[in-house]
Amino acid sequence: MKLGQGRGIEVGYNVQTAVDSQPKLIVATDVTNDTRDRDCLSPMALPANDILGSPFVAVAAVGDYHGEEVKTCLEAGITPYLAGPITSATAKLGLFSKDNFRYEQATETYPCPARAAPVSL
Questions:
Q1: How many domains, the chain?
Q2: Inside any domain, residue 103
Q3: By CB atoms within 10 Å of each CB, which of 37, 81, 83, 121 scores lowest?
Q4: Residue 61: which domain range?
Q5: In terms of pTM, does the model score above 0.70?
Q6: Contact partners, residue 30, CB within 8 Å, separation at least 6
Q7: Alpha-carbon distance 6 to 3, whole Å?
């Protein structure tokens, strides 16, 4: 497996599993030398769906997020739940992203997250 970012190669495997949440039994597995999980969602969810039947809900980590994989699951009647990756450079630049802002319905505003307390005008 490539370790990424010029760190070399190491003997290792990436193991994927699909688990039925009720009896906690493994229903599908796969082992690969690919270090990325981004193409693993539907290859695990589709066989699990065949075993468990629809409607099926898949829960995965942010590393599994890939638009085509999500689309494949949705087309098969599988509802995937996973966080989308944060791709904005704003955090690296020390700026706020849209996730830092919360809508306040009472005032119909988005208060600045840098302010410790609301400012009265």
A1: 1
A2: no
A3: 121
A4: 14-84
A5: no
A6: 15, 16, 40, 43, 44
A7: 7
